[in-house]
């Protein structure tokens, strides 16, 4: 390979991780510069991505290049080395809020056209929709996923077990899914023997054809599948669950992934809102629609638009809402102080984080009186819901898990090349009429056909052969490296999974699997198998598709180590590069709230620290840069000490927060560099630096705690003012000066 400059691309994202970057990046730069590594940033924040869509409407100074597209290309190169922090996968309400904020900041952006009236508005909507939902991860994830708790993290959790809510055998909490009429029940799947091009069309009863999509190119060996959800069955199920929750005296809660499944899940969410508030929508549906209410944006959208109704109607609607709330079951709350329910916005309760949080809290969620209560967790589709029910059953039978003794479940996830649901956005449709949806290939053969009704939600997913083959290889490598059993979570009763099982069986033959324990189990069985081992303190590798990758890499970490923020989250890119994600969680909006309110940021950057260590190691290997390897090893040592010394941020104001934790990480990193024997020049540089850390520790930590307590202004939520955010995140002159000295002396 031609020698290129060793370079790490560090992403600028949103909310808590973006704020943490103001404080942590100067540390990263000061240390990596000592090894001749350049660290460059790329803005892939929600606001940056919005601005990148509309260069013609902005002044030259306001323009933001399309960094996401650039990084997407970089990810396909062997020298790619990207540190990716979590970003907002925006729901429509978040997207609109970000547009409004940017407009107020002086960016001449168009409004989001809900109902485009002409071609120009169609184009504006299409540009915004590119930014909506899970628009970043599928582009950068040009590889499959390897997520696990590092040894030091697991050890720390065993020595310092986090609090786990007790479980009682008579808990009424459970998962509810549709008995029929869901995606699971209707799935059809096949593997293509040769490359082709397909079109998706709906033929209505009167013989009219509506082309939903055409010219979709598919590769030989690719697995495709199609399924749909019957909306009538969904609504009936939701109504039954509402009545059952009321009868059982438990909370009603809905758990969806409206961000990642940006087309299907907001629609399902909308049906839940309409069914829960049925008396309101039955009586006033027309009036609400006339003022632009869209239930897919949540109950919050109804409340936000009430003022647009005639005064008399508004009062009647408010009464009907009060009645629906009084007569229905209690709703699980997101924030009981502010009256925010589970149904307010589709991005507050996101299944990967919300279900484990519930299981960790005795299977309960918060009610309107700010107390925990049993709940039905509604997960309409059956494909993966059984995983949570099996976990709940296990807790009812054996009690809560014990972080001090429990084993670990790591994950090898199939997600490369927009595998499975990551490739479904542009092939998901709310059907405009009843009829038959057909997928037809270039030779005119009908690959799939579904009889559908108006309003049903139909979707098609793709999974490329190369991605599956790479995933199987990664699973075998992890099984070999750890000696742990690896379980492919695949259900032979599901059409898509049957195609995958055939490929897994074929590709396993390409590897030496002698002595490895490999299983193929349906998700519920795989859960039982893994939980039984976890209780015995044993480790297991879960090898899953994209959705279970997402679910399990929050579920097990949250149970095992208290949070998914402490996960090592590596994406070995298929062309040889590395994408290093920082933890398996998201951008923690609640943390920003606390910072703004009392200038304390409880975001733990351990995910960033872990990602940077593996990024340096990878970079050292690819660019034959020994110094990078030394730096990475030293960072590993620092990470272990950071855990041992308990320097994670506290949740409480005036205690150590994110900013102070960066000081300690740098301190321990300098110490490890001053003590290592591999690189004399680095030792010489960091020995006096370490003395400075020793000398200034108490002063810096005191100053960082003294700034806390009062609210702060960062000049924006989705696009903070960089100067204001930097002032808040780097408030300690002594610490800033020390870092500047380290950087200057490089
Ligand atoms: N890789 C990515 O880009 C991902 C992006 N997202 C996006 O993130 C946003 C929020 O998603 P949400 O479902 O609320 O999940 P989050 O993981 O952001 O938050 C859930 C909770 O996890 C805890 N947490 C997460 N990360 C950390 C951390 N580094 N340090 C300390 N605590 C942490 C916090 O708990 P506590 O309140 O107790 O402090 C937080 O409230 C959404 O916009 C979503 O689209 C979500 C997942 C992955
Ligand atoms: O891409 C997204 O929207 C969310 C991703 C996520 O939650 C994960 O990868 O764990
Ligand atoms: Mg997730």
From TrEMBL:
GO-annotated biological processes: glyoxylate cycle; tricarboxylic acid cycle
EC number: 1.1.1.42
Catalytic activity of the protein: D-threo-isocitrate + NADP(+) = 2-oxoglutarate + CO2 + NADPH
Cofactor: how and how many bound: Binds 1 Mg(2+) or Mn(2+) ion per subunit.
Molecular functions (GO terms): isocitrate dehydrogenase (NADP+) activity; metal ion binding
Taxonomy, superkingdom: Bacteria
Cofactor(s) recorded in Swiss-Prot or TrEMBL: Mg(2+); Mn(2+)
Residues holding D-threo-isocitrate: 147, 549
Record site feature (Critical for catalysis), residues: 257, 422
Family (UniProt): Belongs to the monomeric-type IDH family.
Protein's recorded name: Isocitrate dehydrogenase [NADP]
